[in-house]
Amino acid sequence: MGCLFFPKLLENTMLEETNFKSLCQKFIKKEFLNINKGFHRFYCVYSDGRFPEEDLINNLTTGRNPNARPSMDPLQAINISLTLSLNSIVNVNEVTGTLTTRITLQIRWLDFSLAWNISTFKGISKIQMKTSDVWTPDLVIFNSLTSSPLDKENSVTNNGFVSWTPNFLLDTSCKISVAKFPFDSQICEIQVGPWFHDTNSQYITNGNINSMKLSVNGVWDLTGTNYTSFVLAQAYQASVFKLFLSRRPSYDILHMFCPVILLSVMNLFVFLMPYSSGEKISFCLSIFLTFSVLLASLKAELPVTSLEMPYFGIFVFFQFCLGGIESCVSVLILRLSCRPERDKIPKYLRNVCSFLCLIPAQNHASAVSPIEDSKYVLASHEDKVQSTSENYSNKKDNNDTNNDIKNINQTYELSWDDIASGMDKLCFFVFTGIKSISYRILYSILLMFQAFEDDQSVSGNVLKG
Fold first, then answer.
1. Domain containing 81 — which CATH number?
2. Taking every annotated instance into account, which residue ranges of this chain make up the domain Neurotransmitter-gated ion-channel transmembrane (predicted)?
3. What is the structure's pLDDT at 432?
4. Burial of 137 (0-12, 13-18, 19+ CB in 10 A)
5. Does residue 366 share a domain with residue 308?
6. Do residues 279 and 364 share a domain?
7. 3-state secondary structure labels for all residues of 54-99
8. The dihedral sign for the CA sequence 275, 281, 286, 290
9. Measured between alpha carbons, how far is 448 from 110 in angstroms, rounded to an integer?
10. How many percent of the chain have pLDDT more than 70?
């Protein structure tokens, strides 16, 4: 036995068997005395065999019904204080209209039956108790989309104040307004109140929102908070915590605004491309398909609703329609340039191109007959010579007049390519004007939104203060 417990001792000491037995007895006796002294010290501190906090909890919970309100007067309501600590804004889903946040509710009330004397329980001033052992207020989150039970431990102080601080990930419904996307602001609410008890049983006296520990969100910025409380007709109370959120538009400007404006401007240059390149139609269709992709990506980020449309979405759809019209007009103009020369050019096309100065000046003569045009130019030239050229000889005037008549008779015949080039020039100026007006309207709307955001930011700071 001794060899099993003390093998090293036998290896290092050459003792007789009797000496070894006496040595083992002394060693065991010494260790037993040390263990006994330690247990004696432990037992002296807790003479009754139980911890002081255990005695305190047993004293507070013995014979107590946690379902009963801690009030001596049945008509007196329990006053409750609410504080919502906003830890982080996880997500704002515009499609489903939900707000995901990480919050901590700090609920405080006074329970006289949980008060104790500190000196009686060895200086203990604060303990932790389960919610099943004490009375807790009847509180639910009305607009919560997930069932998150408020089941956490309570902190109880010696003067009877109870603090209940549940922490959880909360999904609440939020009405999303996307008319000003991506410069929109949202007002989301977290509605807290009793489900069964009215104001005669419990009453929320005050509430506030604490956002000091709020982590930064890359998409949304908290511009302000507000707390309101109201009583319904059935004497049920509701507390509303309002969060004023403003979108950070940098990402959407870079990935949506700039590409749309760039594609819209590029689409105008289809009217400046020469027909010989053979890329006019492919250029139009490529930009048209790119607009389709942008509309699809915009649809994925906006709620599926017909009640409200974002102004930016309307702008993109308008540019999309202009791109389609430009493609159709380019096809028609290309069809004009490909018509055979034997086809007669309609008179209205000649007149329109002449009136808008879309063809060269020497081409205007083809719009009228050569005889009438020669008479008109001859008469005007003779009048000009009589009024301004008195020092020139009649022979030189007659020679100049004859040369002018010969040049006019050699009229330039308009071709379908000239008509197509003139229509391209006309369409370029028309669509440039339309798009310039649309850009100006969009810019005015953005300025209006920016002014609104500044006003709301100021009001939000006031609410925070």
1. 2.70.170.10
2. 258-406
3. 92
4. buried
5. no
6. no
7. HHHHHHHHCCCCCCCCCCCCCCCCEEEEEEEEEEEEEEEECCCCEE
8. positive
9. 50
10. 70
If asked whether residues 236 and 286 sit together in one domain, one would say no
Residue 43: exposure state from Cβ atoms within 10 A (0-12, 13-18, ≥19):
exposed
- Higher-pLDDT residue of 320 and 39 is 320
On whether residue 392 sits in a domain, the answer given is yes
Least Cα distance to 197 among 77, 113, 303 occurs for 77
Domain assignment present for residue 26? The answer is no
Whether 137 and 80 have beta carbons less than 8 Å apart is answered as: yes
| Residue 65, both tokens | 């019904």
Asked if 135 and 109 count as a contact pair (C-beta separation under 8 A), the reply is no
Name the pLDDT band for 244 (thresholds 50, 70, 90): very high
Answer yes or no: is 43 within a domain. no
List residues bridging with 208 in a β-sheet.
83
Same domain, 240 and 268: no
Backbone angles phi, psi at 451, to 5 degrees: -65, -40
Assess whether 159 and 124 both reside in one domain: yes
For 109-155, write each residue's pLDDT tens digit.
998 888 888 888 888 888 888 888 888 888 889 888 876 555 566 78
Q: How many CB atoms lie within 10 A of CB 264?
A: 22
Q: Which residues of 374-413 are buried (b: 16+ CB within 10 A; e: fewer)?
A: beebeeebeeebeeeeeeeeeeeeeeeeeeeeeebeebee
d(CA 76, CA 199): 10
| Highest mean pLDDT, choosing among 147-151, 295-299, 363-367 | 295-299
Task: Please report which helix (H) or strand (E) contains residue 204, including its range.
Answer: strand 202-210
Could you tell me the CA-to-CA distances from 214 to 82, 222, 239, 300 in Å, in that order?
18, 9, 21, 28
Does 331 map to a domain?
Answer: yes
* Nearest-angstrom CA–CA distance, 462 and 455: 11
Closest alpha carbon to 366 in 379, 378, 356, 353: 353
Nearest Cα to 28, choosing from 2, 54, 57? 2
For residue 367, give its domain range. Answer: 360-413
Average pLDDT of the chain to the nearest whole number: 75
